[in-house]
Design a protein that fits this description.
single chain; 910 residues; alpha+beta; 20 helices; 36 strands; 26% helix; globular
């Protein structure tokens, strides 16, 4: 009997097919996710990590604002209106620094007022040297420099300028008297517990801190209630602390001051819908019963000059709501998020001015020019960028830039681009520190702006290890061993003796809190490695002068971390007038296409894009940039500062012009102004953009501005004809070769004999930028260098330093004047090192017979090595020294060959 074949039931077949299908889809999804990760939003981005399957972004500031609004809907309508009114009132207020402790003069430190303390104390938090000098009034010969205090986070480090006050020290300054409210704003970083007192005229602010407050960064704003106060004094009674970013602020109620709009501008058209007539509004704040705030006198003057009859009724703006009037239930308060423009006033000035406006400068990675031209495709891939192009003045293909993105970033800060190359960082430091009037950061700080730079460390010449702080940030809020803190118990006794106990503390004793967990011995290795990275090359870093650096580490999540840093910083500085300088540029290979980008490429280019990964990469890169720009713009809106924030975006193009080199598009958006679409500028540079931005916010800058206030080398573009600009550009393009600096190179091949120490004595200029591969020197009062050639055996030593060369074209009567210095010896020693000079290895014994007269040509032939031949000359000297060693080794019996220490020396004009 034949056996029956078994058959699967329909249900079993369905289960098997479904399982295979699900398994296949799962495998496909995992494969796609591996190459195109899923984009996620992280509420706590500080703990987010990049992975192959997830591309995290911080939650948008606007989304956070909307979440708060949804929570607010649970409250009564009256409470919602009250909070809206508070936000509107806050939008009217600016806290503008009128005295900056780290920028202005009239500040000095004195010591030993209440108690003495150790001058040098070992602290956990790292310090970098800064520029500001505080003199000791009791001893004028003693001074202290300010410091850049480094606060490491998981993905970036914040550098804030500050000064350390130890127990018993005080700092005092003369502050300006102005009409209106003043406050003393500062950030305190406590190092030891104890007491602090601040005298503000006849008023005193005092506070006692416990162990629980140590190593925490806290912001304070103390009102100066004495309107006649002309000095401020900060006294450390028994504590040690850093006082950071300290300034005296003036509360201004003109955050919505109108834009002065010119009818002659080459960039903007007048927006007639927001022109105002002669209106005067009074606003009463909730916390100020009798305070009446009016528009400033200058604005009133310009308003009075207008002719209201020239305006049509429909062009007049609605009467603003008076916040001092009781709100009726039927009245809807204006939404602060919708305040995107301020009123405008017509003037006869050749350019517009937006007083009190913030400036946000963004530099993005390169983008394809063909994509910018194809607006339909751009609208799908990059809606934020497309919207900005429609609303802004666009300098299309007209800005000449460098191929180096970091150099372009620095050109916004320092207008002299000759010194921004990273090859000669010490010279850059010298120029930036000396030429303060060419520094955009310092110029804006003088006019009451808070300045923050958000970039990678290398852009500011910091060592990149300064931001790789994931391990170091785990030590936040932890102490060293108790034995390291000599003040702990003594401080408490002094607190009890000097400060009377008041209030509830007089009845109930405050419970003492335990000191935070101490750092164990194994943690010191992490601290040591971090500090060594932070301090590397720090002497070559210029003082750019921002209130705060935020240095992002240069890894896969660089751009999202930059966006989050901007969101956090603006949340702390909403009432400030600020410049935010943001570098979004990063390595394109670090931007990976996500699953969303894959969908965009399919919807934009069709399924054929799947077989062309380069197209997907391009779309992903643009989409990535667009998301960052979108979140930055959303942050400006969420902080209720959109109505007074100028945005400029430098957008480099991928295609390089054969005649102009690298070029970029500039996108300039000023709220409320209508851009002209026929901008015909050509051959612009970044200095022109800087001059235009600063003049727009009321700081007159530019070659074509009569009352210019700085040496920033650019033209104000709203006030120049195309013909005049082109003629000026032709003259400015002529090369100027000024050898203002000398680089000195010393190559030492030490030997067992003839290695006595010697000195280099500069004639006039100071030595700076000293670098060596081995420590064989000491600098004596910055006036001379002493070398000890045989302190390290069997090593080839390279030594360089810089000096200014003020008399490059002068007539020289001797070699010292030409070189700017001379070598000397402490004693009359016969066994001296043997010198060789220049490319031709001219020996020191041959120099007297080398020429008949001291001429510049002869001196250059002996000592000068051009910068382009620098590395070649160094290699040639090494090879020759080794060849001489071999020759001397084979002729030991020759008394004229005595294995001398050999030194190569030459000078390079820069």
């Amino acid at each position: 009997m034949a056996l029956k074949t078994s058959r699967l039931s329909k249900l079993s077949l369905y289960i098997i097919v479904s399982s295979i299908t699900v398994f296949t889809f799962l495998i496909c999804f995992l494969i796609i996710s591996f190459f195109f990760p899923v984009q996620t939003i992280s509420n706590n981005f500080s703990t987010a990590r990049s992975s192959r399957f997830i591309a995290p972004w911080p939650i948008s500031a606007l989304e956070q604002e909307n979440l708060e609004r949804r929570r607010l809907k649970r409250y009564a309508k009256s409470e919602q209106l009250r909070r809206m009114e508070k936000q509107l009132q806050r939008m009217e207020i600016l806290n503008t620094p009128i005295y900056d402790l780290f920028l202005d003069s009239n500040a000095e430190i004195s010591n030993t007022r209440f108690m003495t303390s150790l001058e040098d104390t070992s602290f956990l938090w790292p310090m970098l040297p800064a520029k500001k000098l505080f003199y000791n009034s009791l001893n004028p010969n003693v001074f202290r420099k300010s410091s850049q205090v480094v606060f490491p986070y998981s993905h970036w480090s914040r550098l804030i300028e500050g000064i350390i006050l130890l127990g018993g020290e005080e700092i005092k300054a003369t502050i300006p008297v102005v009409r209106g409210r003043r406050s003393f704003n500062f950030t305190l970083f406590l190092l030891t517990p104890g007491s602090i007192r601040i005298n503000l005229g006849q008023y005193i602010w005092a506070k006692t801190f416990t162990e629980d407050d140590v190593q925490k960064r806290v912001k304070f704003s103390i009102p100066i209630n004495d309107s006649t106060a002309t000095n401020i004094k900060i006294i450390s009674i028994s504590s040690s602390f850093y006082i950071l970013d300290a300034s005296v602020n003036h509360t201004e109620h003109n955050a919505r001051s109108p834009i002065r709009v010119s009818s002659q501008s080459k960039i903007w058209n007048v927006n007639k819908t927001i022109l105002i007539a002669n209106q005067k509004k009074t606003v009463k704040l909730a916390n100020e019963d009798e305070t009446i705030l009016e528009d400033d006198e200058e604005v009133d003057k310009f308003v009075d000059e207008q002719k209201p009859e020239d305006l049509k009724p429909e062009e007049l703006p609605p009467t603003p709501i008076q916040l001092n009037q009781p709100t009726k239930k039927s009245v809807t308060i204006i939404d602060p998020l919708t305040q995107i423009t301020n009123p405008q006033i017509m003037t006869d000035e050749p350019y517009s001015t937006a007083f009190g406006y913030n400036i946000v400068i963004i530099q993005t990675p390169k983008i394809s020019e063909s994509l910018l031209k194809n607006r339909k495709k751009l609208a799908k891939i990059s809606p934020t960028l497309n919207s900005l192009l429609e609303q802004s003045a666009v300098f299309s293909k007209s800005i000449s830039i460098s191929e180096n993105s970091s150099e372009n970033f620095r050109r916004f800060i320092f207008s002299d681009s000759k010194y921004l190359s990273s090859d000669n960082i010490p010279i850059t430091r010298e120029e930036v520190d000396d030429e303060k009037e060419k520094n955009t950061y310092l110029e804006l700080r003088k006019y009451g702006y808070d300045v923050v730079g958000i970039a990678n460390p290398e852009t500011y010449f910091f060592n990149k290890q300064i931001s790789e702080s994931a391990g170091f940030s785990n030590f936040y809020g932890r102490w060293l061993e108790k034995s390291e803190w000599a003040f702990s118990r003594k401080n408490m006794q002094i607190d009890d003796r000097n400060l009377p106990v008041q209030g509830l503390d007089a009845i109930f004793k405050t419970k003492s809190k335990d000191i935070s967990p101490s750092i164990s011995q194994k943690d010191f290795q992490v601290i040591s490695s971090y500090l060594s990275g932070v301090s590397q090359n720090i002497d070559a870093v210029p003082n750019w002068g921002p209130n705060e650096y935020i240095l992002i580490n240069n890894q896969t999540l660089y751009i999202p971390r930059t966006v989050e840093a901007f969101q956090n910083w603006t949340q702390e500085n909403q009432q400030s007038r600020f410049l935010a300088h943001i570098l979004l540029d990063t390595d394109p290979t670090l931007i990976r296409p996500t699953l969303k980008d894959l969908g965009k490429s399919i919807s934009t280019l069709g399924f054929s894009s799947i077989v062309n990964p380069f197209q997907i990469d391009d779309i992903a890169r643009v989409s990535y940039i667009d998301r960052a720009l979108g979140q930055i713009m959303d942050t400006i809106k969420a902080r209720k500062i959109e109505n007074r924030t100028i945005v400029f975006i430098l957008q480099p193009l991928e295609k390089v012009d054969s005649k102009k080199g690298s070029i970029a598009t500039g996108i300039l958006k000023i709220p409320g102004l209508i851009p002209k679409k026929n901008l015909t500028f050509e051959n612009l540079n970044i200095n022109d953009i800087t001059a235009t931005l600063l003049t727009n916010v009321g700081i007159p800058v530019g070659k074509n501005i009569a009352n210019k206030q700085s040496k920033i080398d650019g033209y104000m573009l709203e006030n120049i004809k195309k013909k005049d600009y082109e003629e000026n550009i032709k003259t400015s393009l002529e090369p100027i070769n000024i050898n203002k600096f000398f680089k000195y190179t010393l190559l030492i091949k030490p030997d067992a004999h003839n290695c006595a120490s010697f000195l280099w004595n500069p004639k006039k200029e100071q030595i700076f930028g000293v670098q060596t591969n081995y420590p064989v020197n000491q600098i004596i009062l910055e006036k001379s260098i002493e070398f000890f050639p045989c302190s390290i055996k069997n090593k080839f030593i390279t030594f360089t330093w810089y000096q200014k060369n003020e008399g490059a074209n002068a007539f020289y009567s001797n070699i010292d004047e030409f070189l700017g210095g001379s070598f000397s010896y402490r004693k009359n020693i016969t066994s001296l090192p043997y010198f060789y000079f220049g490319n031709y290895l001219t020996s020191s014994e041959s120099i007297p017979f080398y020429f008949d007269s001291v001429t510049k040509q002869n001196l250059e032939k002996i000592f000068i090595v051009d910068e382009k031949n620098l590395k070649k000359s160094q290699k040639a000297i090494k090879d020759n020294f080794y060849a001489i060693d071999i020759f001397e080794g084979k002729n030991l019996d020759n008394p004229t060959l005595t294995n001398r220490t050999k030194i190569g020396f030459f000078v390079t004009p820069l």
